[in-house]
Structure formats: structure tokens, C-alpha cells
Design a protein that fits this description.
The complex is a heterodimer of chains A (356) and B (269). With 356 residues, chain A is mostly helical. Chain A has a two-stranded antiparallel ribbon. In chain A, helix 3 crosses helix 5 and helix 6 packs parallel to helix 8. Chain A is elongated, with a radius of gyration of 27 Å. The two termini of chain A are 43 Å apart. The C terminus of chain A is likely disordered. Helices cover 72% and strands 3% of the residues of chain B. In chain B, helix 2 packs parallel to helix 10 and helix 7 runs antiparallel to helix 8. Chain B has a two-stranded antiparallel sheet with strand order 1-2. Chain B contains eleven helices and two strands, in the order αααααββαααααα. Chain B has 269 residues and is mainly alpha-helical. The chains are: A mainly alpha (356), B mainly alpha (269). At the A-B interface, helix 1, helix 2, strand 1, helix 4 and helix 7 of A face helix 1, helix 2, helix 3, helix 4 and helix 5 of B.
């Protein structure tokens, strides 16, 4: 459920970066203020642990599928929420760089969904109050399980909101939410179970590790956490409302100047205008049979449609075959050219690579 | 444990690519990082129906992949890794958006298919540019670039240490799982209870390893500062950055493929 660059708009990506960046800046300041130089190697090592742990899947009884550890909440329990956020962010960065999980611009959104929400929302607001100071096994199970599930659910909601706001996918808010939330409720149970199982193991064998996060005290830590979460929520809401009003406009604009020329306008008047404009453009074409607005609703065997007939503003198929063809031919040609340049550069570099 | 092994192999391959002797510093990592970010913003700033106009931008990852000698197979495999989620989301577009948009030889394509194609192309472009960035510079060099850009040291040092111990712990996890598998006989599936003690052990070992590492760092005079070797910014780097930015701007402002296509089919614009 890593957000991908390809599904993001620049505005959403940058806002999420701002939110995640604020939270990260706060977190690194808190970590630095702890001035605990033993924390530095521990953070590095536990980051590597989460990475390694995510490579191992356990099987879910009764189904053919498997699950793995999320990590954010577990890290928060071991090191405190701020160090955990820094660690999870570093894991996400390496995943984005090496495994194409997410992307560089989507990294902000991913740090927010997978790092900020578990560490700075689910941990202080769900886990800490439920678990208390020295939790029993049952209490630990309940608190960690609930917090892990909630964190995943919030993260999935984040993905939904960011995708819908970006508008690259055509999915509606409700549609995508109905798709994502039930799936992630199930995944949340599995992730919660994995987190609880490992926490109980640690509690049995090295219980002092779980108190590593405690001495910071709850009250002073909660404030920056809530501040970051609040800021991010505001940012999200702001972008959301802005997009809600800006979207139809942007879409119309996009339809008018899409690279592969889209001539489908949304209103009949617009349709008419665009058709007329296209007509004017294609009229200069002397002998090319295709671009005469061959409305595709006429079957192939039909009598060739005359330009006059085709220029009637018919119901939907307001597509200009000429520009379509130009777009496709041009696109393919450009791709070919780029590939050729790439190959040429590669060929030129080859002798260099042969040399030691 | 095919997955852990594969993941480890990929990291080692990329690391080896970035650390080739004599070729590691083909460009200032900061310049490469900045241009890659600008590239990603340029790619995703196109509207959702753009396909053809994105094509010229492929020149950037292609050219830099050639320069950094990133194998094409690696690029293709990585893009393949990234596709499933984006395509899963994008596959709804053809169902939801049926307005005709493109017409070719009697075949009509709806806006949904065009936007799906756009998503696939975006994945290919952004993922390959990111891969070329890391293969061309390497994580340590990227971290020093980040530090110079003002990223807190807590974060850059964390990235460096994570990267260093990733190979160690991933290898350990893979070996533990292989050992379990060899002993599991006819029951290769990993139950949750076994999983918990497997990963719990790994966690405890990681904590102990971190304590030993801390002692070793202290012995060698660790004071909380992390030395970095910044590379000097040269005129060539400025040219590199400005040149690519101008290219992205051009590709963003005019649809080069449409112009080419119109010239080719004989449509005058």
C-alpha cells in the first residue's frame, strides 16, 4: 500500500512532503535532544531489522495467503515514537530508492501514511492510554493489536485521500475507500497479530527493552506529536477543499490541451466549439482520407462519410481521427527516437566499460 | 526464502553499480538528485490524459542510464516491480471513464484507457529515473548531498547506518529462514508462533549487535558527529542542471510528439 509517484499530482505530493517533513523535523529535534549516542546504532540496527523482518512472511491459518510486520508501532514501543518515525522514514527511503516501493515524491505521502500515523497518532493516542505503565500480557495484546489495526486503517485512508485528491486515477472517494478499507482491515488484523506476537516474545525474554520508550514521559512528548498530526490534517483538509473546487476546471483545461489531443469537451457548447476548431484545422489537409472526422459509430463497411456529415455535432463520439493519428504516430516516433539515442549513448559508452 | 535472497541480490547489484572504481563520481550527487526531483515533478505535472507528450521525457532516464551503465534488464525488472499497485488502481479508469478520446483505424479508445496508459508510462519514467539516481550515485553519496541540502544529521546518519546493516541483517534473516525451512520437512509454511520466535530472536540479536556496535564506535572516538566528504560543485554540474531543466521546460510547454506526428501525417497545425 505504498503510494506511487505515478498516482500523485505535484500539489498533493508536495503538501504531503510538507506535512511529513514537519513531523520528521520535530522528530529529529527530539531525538537529538535525547543526546543518547547509544540510540544512533540502535536506530540503524532496528531499521535494518524491520527491513529484514518484512522479507519474511508467515502464513495465515485457513487461507493461502501470508502477512508480514508493519514495524512502525513495534519501533515506537521499543524506542519511543520520534526515533521510530526517523527509523521508519529511513526504511521507506531505501525502499523507494532500491525497490521502487513508492517513489521520491510519493515518499512524503508514504512517510505520513506508514510513519507519522502509527508513530505519532496511533502510538500516543491509542497504545499509551490503553497499555498504561506496566501492562499485563492481555493488556499489551489488546493495546498493541488495536493500535496496529487502527494505524493501518488510517494509512489506507491516507492512500485513498491522496489518490483521489491527485485525480490521476478516476476512482471516486467512496469507491476507492470501499475497495481499500475492508482489505486493509483484514491486513490490519494480520499485522496486529504479528506485532503482538513479537512484542510478547520481547516481553517474555527482555522485558526491559519495552521500557526503553517510557522514561521520556508521556505529557511532553504528546504535544509535538499532536502538533505535527494537527498540521498535517490541516494541510490535507486545505488541499482537499482546494481540489474539490479546482478539479472540474483543471479537467476541462486538461481536455483542451491534452498531448494526445482530446477533443471531448464536457458541455455541448464546448463540444461544438472544439469540433469547429478541429474542423478548421483539418480543413487544410488536402487528400488525407482518415482525418475527416470519421465518426467511428459508422461501421467499417459503410459508405465513406463526407466531411459535412461528420462535422455534425453528434452525441458522444466527438473524436478526431486525424489528431488521434498524429498524436499516436508522433508519440511512437518520439519514443523510437529516444530509444535510439539511448542505445547510441550506450554503444558509445561500451568501449569505455571494456577498459579497466 | 526466495524473496529475501532476491531483494538482497538487487541491493548488492545496485550498490556494486554505484561503487564501480573510477566511475563512482561521474557527477555531483546533489546535481543528480535535484534534476531527478525536477524530472519527477515535471512528469507528474501533466494532466491525466497525457501519453504522447510524456515520451520526450524518457530521454532523461535513458541518457543517464546509458551514462551510468545501468543494465536495461535491471530497469525493466524494477519497473515491473512497481507496476502492480499503480495498475490495480489505474485499471478502474477504463471502467469509469468511457468517453471516447482517441480513434485509430476504426478502433476507438476511451479516456479511461488513455489515462491508464498514462499511469503506466508515469510509473516507467519515475521509477527508472529513481533507479538511475541511486545506481549512478550510491546511497552514501546521496546522504552527503542530503546533508548539504540541510537535512538533519539524525536522518542522514540513520540512512547510512540502516544501509550498512541492511545487508547484515537481511542475510541473517535469510539464513535463519533457510535453516527453519531445512528442518521443517513436510511443513514449510511458517506459523505465527514460529514466526514470532524467529523474528523475536532476530530482534534481540539486533539489539545486542547495536550495543556491540556502540561500544566499537565509542572505542574509535565517536562523538556524535559523522564525517562526510562533500564533492565540489563545478561548472559542469551547473550546466547539467540547467540543461536538463530547460529540456523539461520545453517538453512541458510544447507537445513535441504531436508536432512530429502532425508533420509526419501531413496535418498542418
Amino acid at each position: 500500500m505504498h503510494m506511487a509517484d505515478a498516482l500523485l499530482s505535484p500539489a498533493t505530493g508536495l503538501v504531503m512532503w510538507a506535512a511529513a517533513g514537519t513531523a520528521l523535523a520535530v522528530a529529529s529535534r527530539v531525538v537529538k535532544a535525547r543526546a543518547d549516542d547509544a540510540l544512533v546504532p540502535l536506530m540503524g540496527m532496528l531499521g535494518a531489522f524491520v527491513f529484514a523482518a518484512q522479507m519474511i512472511n508467515f502464513s495465515i491459518p485457513g487461507t493461502g495467503s501470508s502477512g508480514h510486520l508493519g514495524g512502525g508501532l513495534l519501533l515506537a514501543m521499543l524506542m519511543g515514537p520520534h526515533a521510530a518515525l526517523v527509523v521508519i522514514s529511513s526504511v521507506l527511503t531505501v525502499q523507494a530508492l532500491f525497490f521502487a516501493d513508492g517513489g521520491l515524491l510519493a515518499l512524503g505521502a508514504n512517510i505520513f501514511n506508514i510513519g507519522v500515523l502509527p508513530c505519532l497518532v496511533a502510538y500516543p493516542l491509542v497504545y499509551r492510554p490503553l497499555a498504561g505503565v506496566a501492562p499485563s500480557r492481555r493488556r499489551l495484546t489488546l493495546a498493541a493489536g488495536l493500535a496496529a489495526m487502527l494505524a493501518l486503517q488510517l494509512g489506507a485512508m491516507g492512500v485513498v485521500l491522496q489518490t483521489v485528491m491527485s485525480g490521476i486515477s478516476g476512482l471516486s472517494l467512496e469507491g476507492f475507500a470501499w475497495l481499500m478499507l475492508p482489505i486493509h482491515a483484514a491486513i490490519g488484523v494480520v499485522e496486529g497479530a504479528a506485532t503482538v506476537a513479537i512484542v510478547l516474545f520481547v516481553q517474555r525474554h527482555r522485558p526491559e527493552l519495552l521500557h526503553g520508550a517510557a522514561p521520556e514521559g508521556v505529557a511532553p512528548r504528546l504535544r509535538p506529536a499532536l502538533l505535527a498530526a494537527g498540521l498535517a490534517t490541516l494541510a490535507l483538509g486545505g488541499v482537499g477543499s482546494w481540489f474539490a473546487s479546482a478539479d472540474p476546471d483543471g479537467l476541462e483545461w486538461s481536455v483542451q490541451r491534452a498531448g494526445v489531443n482530446a477533443v471531448a469537451a464536457t458541455t455541448p457548447a464546448g463540444l461544438h466549439d472544439t469540433l469547429a476548431a478541429v474542423q478548421k484545422r483539418t480543413a487544410l489537409l488536402p487528400d488525407y482520407g482518415l482525418p475527416d472526422d470519421a465518426v467511428s459509430t459508422s461501421p467499417a463497411g459503410d459508405a465513406p462519410s463526407t466531411p459535412a456529415q461528420a462535422s455534425q455535432p453528434q452525441a458522444w463520439p466527438a473524436v478526431n481521427a486525424g489528431t488521434s493519428l498524429a498524436g499516436v504516430v508522433g508519440g511512437v516516433t518520439t519514443l523510437g527516437l529516444v530509444l535510439a539515442v539511448g542505445l547510441l549513448l550506450r554503444r558509445r559508452r561500451q568501449p569505455a566499460s571494456a577498459r579497466p | 526464502m526466495a524473496r529475501a535472497d532476491q531483494a538482497l541480490d538487487r541491493m548488492l547489484a545496485l550498490d556494486a553499480l554505484a561503487a564501480r572504481p573510477g566511475d563512482a563520481g561521474y557527477r555531483n550527487p546533489m546535481a543528480h538528485l535535484l534534476v531527478t526531483l525536477a524530472f519527477i515533478v515535471a512528469v507528474i505535472s501533466f494532466d491525466r490524459y497525457t501519453v504522447a507528450a510524456l515520451m520526450p521525457l524518457a530521454l532523461f532516464p535513458m541518457a543517464l542510464a546509458a551514462q551510468a551503465r545501468v543494465p536495461a534488464a535491471l530497469l525493466v525488472r524494477t519497473v515491473g516491480l512497481a507496476l502492480p499497485f499503480a495498475v490495480m488502481v489505474g485499471l478502474f479508469n477504463p471502467l469509469l471513464d468511457r468517453n471516447p478520446m482517441l480513434q485509430l483505424a476504426g478502433l476507438q479508445l476511451s479516456g479511461g484507457w488513455v489515462s491508464l496508459a498514462s499511469i503506466v508510462l508515469r510509473v516507467a519514467l519515475t521509477v527508472s529515473a529513481t533507479l538511475v539516481l541511486v545506481a549512478g550515485t550510491g546511497l552514501p553519496a546521496l546522504c552527503s548531498a542530503l546533508a548539504r541540502l540541510g537535512v538533519p544529521q539524525v536522518l542522514t546518519v540513520q540512512l547510512l547506518l540502516l544501509y550498512r546493516y541492511l545487508f547484515v541483517l537481511a542475510g541473517e534473516a535469510a539464513r535463519m529462514d533457510t535453516a527453519r525451512r531445512l528442518r521443517a520437512g513436510w511443513q514449510p509454511r511458517l506459523a505465527l508462533s514460529t514466526y514470532a520466535s524467529l523474528l523475536g530472536q532476530l530482534l534481540l540479536r539486533s539489539v545486542e549487535r547495536a550495543q556491540r556496535l556502540h561500544q566499537a564506535m565509542r572505542v574509535r572516538g565517536y562523538t556524535g558527529q559523522w564525517p562526510t566528504a562533500p564533492r565540489r560543485w563545478q561548472l559542469a554540474d551547473t550546466v547539467f542542471v540547467l540543461g536538463w531543466l530547460a529540456f523539461f521546460g520545453l517538453a512541458r510547454a510544447v507537445s513535441l510528439p504531436l508536432a512530429v506526428g502532425q508533420a509526419l501525417v501531413g496535418l498542418s497545425p
